[in-house]
Amino acid sequence: MRVSRIQAEENRQTVIDVASRLFREHGFDGIGLKDLMKGAGLTQGAFYKQFQSKDDLAAQASRRALESAFGRWSAAADPQDPLGAVIAFYLSMGHRQERMDGCPVVALGSDVARQSVDVKASFEAGIKNYLEMLGRWIGETDGEDSTDKSMAILSTMVGALVLSRAVNNKRLSKRFLQAAAKSVSMTSSASVAQQGSLE
Amino acid sequence: MRVSRIQAEENRQTVIDVASRLFREHGFDGIGLKDLMKGAGLTQGAFYKQFQSKDDLAAQASRRALESAFGRWSAAADPQDPLGAVIAFYLSMGHRQERMDGCPVVALGSDVARQSVDVKASFEAGIKNYLEMLGRWIGETDGEDSTDKSMAILSTMVGALVLSRAVNNKRLSKRFLQAAAKSVSMTSSASVAQQGSLE
DNA sequence: ATTATCTATAGATCTATAGATAATGC
DNA sequence: ATTATCTATAGATCTATAGATAATGC
Predict the structure, then answer these.
(1) Nearest nucleotide from residue A32 CA, by C1' atom
(2) Res A77: pLDDT
(3) Residue A92 is inside which H or E element, if any?
(4) Which of A82, B98, B160, B184 could form a disulfide with A155 if both were Cys (CB 3.0 to 4.6 A apart)?
C-alpha cells in the first residue's frame, strides 16, 4: 500500500489540483475531505499525512486556483489588445457557466472573507498578480493612477460575474457582462477618450 | 408550550430576520438550523412547522436581507447627491467590517451561484431594485444606456467590496474601495465630464 | 380539538485520529 | 526501519422527523 516518495508528492499535487476545482464548484464548506480525496483517487485516511488540516488544503488549493487563473489570463492575452482579449473571455457567458474552472475570486470571493489568514494570503497574492498584469496593459498612458484604474477594472469584472451568476434570468446575466465590458473599455482608455473629445 | 397565532407569526419573522444576518455572517453552509433557531430564542424542533426546508428559509432570509439593504440605500441617499451618499457608506471600511449587516450580494454572492432557483429569485428581485434606484439617480442625463451604467456601477461596487474583504492587507482593502469610488463617480457623470472637457 | 413548541432521536455526514498493511528506502 | 495509504472509528454536527406537552381557538 505504500508508494514511492515521488508518487506521494504527485498524489499531493493531484489533491491540490482537484481541491482547487472542487472548492470552486461547491464552496469551502460544500465539500468534505472524503470527496476531495476520492476526486484524487485516494481515501480519506491518507489526507492528514499530506495536509495539516482542511484549512491548510484550502489555502494551498486557493493559491493553485489563482495561479491557474493567472495562467489563463496570460494565455488569452493577445499582444495586440491584451485587455480586450481578457475581457472577451472573462466577461462571457461561458465563464459564467464554468464555475469549476473559472475565476476563484468570483467562485469563492464571498467565502474568503470568512476564511483563515492563510487562505486570504493566497487570494491577496493572486489578486496582486492580476493587478500588476492589468497595470502593464493600461498603465503606460498616464502612469500615475494606473493602479487605481486596475483596481476599478478588476472590481467591475469580478462584480459583474458574481451578479451574473446570482440571478436566474439569462438575459439579465448577459447584460451585466456586456455592461461591464463596455464600462471597463471606457475606464481603461479614459485619458485617451478625453484627449479624443478635445479634437 | 403552544403560543398564539400572532406570537407564532412574530416568531417566524424573527427567525427570518436572524437568519438574514447569520447567513451573511457565516454563509448558507456555515450555520445550522439549531443555531439559527437559537438566535431567535427557539429550539430546532419548531423549525419545520414554520419552514419547508433550510433552503426555504435561505430564500426568505435572502429576500429579507436584500429588502433591508435596499432600505439602507434609501435612508442614506441624500437628495442633493444620492449616489455620492450611497457610495460614501457602501465603499467604506465600516461596511467592509460589518458582514452581518452589510450588503447580502457581497456577503453571499459567490454562494448564491450554488443555491436553488428560489434563493436566486430573491437575489434577482433585490438586484433589480438596486439597479432601478441607481438608474433614477444617474439616468436623467443621457437616458438611453442608463441601465448599462447602473449595472457597471453596481458591479464595481460589489466587486470592490468582495476584493476588499478577500485580502489581509488593510491598506490594500482601502485602496480598492477608494479606487472604486473614484471610478464610479466618473462612470456616473461620464457624459457630463465629456461636455466639461469640450469647454 | 387543534397546534406551536419542546425534547428526543434517526440517519447521514463532517473533521480528525488510530492501528493495520504493504511497499519503499536505507 | 520507515512510511504512504488503507480500513475503521471517535465524537461532533447536520437536516429532518416523531411523539409529548401545554396553551390557544373554537
Answers:
(1) C14
(2) 87
(3) none
(4) B160
Q: How confident is the model at residue B74 (pLDDT cuts 50, 70, 90)?
A: very high
Residue B40 CB closer than 7 angstroms to strand C? no
Percent of chain B with pLDDT over 70: 92
Contact indicator for A136, A128 with CB cutoff of 8 Å: no
DSSP label at A145?
A: T
Please answer whether residues A186 and A196 qualify as being in contact, where contact means their C-beta atoms are separated by less than 8 angstroms. no
Residue count of chain A:
199
For residue A141, the model assigns a pLDDT of 61
Task: For residue range B50-64, list pLDDT tens digits in order.
Answer: 999 999 999 999 999
Of A55, A52, A41, residue with least CA distance to A11: A41
Å: B2 CA to D23 C1': 5
pLDDT, tens digit (0-9, with 9 covering 90-100), for A119-168: 999 999 999 999 999 999 986 665 557 899 999 999 999 999 999 999 99
Tell which residue, B62, B52, B83, has the closest CA to residue B125: B62
Summarize the confidence of residues B31-54 as an average pLDDT: 97
Residue B132 cell numbers, joined:
432601478
Residue of B148, B183, B184, B192 best to disrupt the A interface, most CBs of A under 10 A = B183
Residue A67 and residue A82: Cα distance in Å, rounded? 18
B47 touches strand D (CB under 7 A): yes
What residue spans of chain A are helical by DSSP H?
5-26, 33-39, 47-50, 54-76, 82-90, 93-97, 104-112, 117-138, 146-166, 170-188, 190-198
What residues of B are in contact with residue A194 (Cβ under 8 Å)?
Answer: 193-194, 197
Grid coordinates given for B109: 454572492
d(CA B159, CA A157): 7
Mutate one of A22, A23, A25, A151 to test the B interface: name it (highest B CB count within 10 A): A151
Give pLDDT, residue A123.
Answer: 98
pLDDT for the residue A1: 75
Q: Count the neighbouring beta carbons within 10 Å of the beta carbon of residue B75.
A: 10
Q: How far apart are CA A135 and CA A148, in angstroms?
A: 9
Phi-psi label, residue A89: left if phi above 0, alpha if psi -120 to 50, beta otherwise: alpha
* Nucleic acid strand C within 7 Å of A27 CB: no
